[in-house]
Amino acid sequence: MNPKLLLFSGLITMLVGIGLGAILATLLPTPYRSGWYLQQRPGYMAIGAAGGFLFGISIEALRELKEQRDREEKDS
Description:
76 residues; mainly alpha; 3 helices
């Protein structure tokens, strides 16, 4: 597997996850005024970033493994 391609895929989907987390935080404002609730926005973005990174790496790894399997089946 190509580690540079895995990292690139993870970083791109991480940026998408950050964006989705920011959108979610603005679309779903909390009705509460406590300081704990007002600090949720960075939490949504961090969860989106981690989820996006893991999703991107997983999808790219599966794609590379499928290509490898297809090459092996073609050679046999």
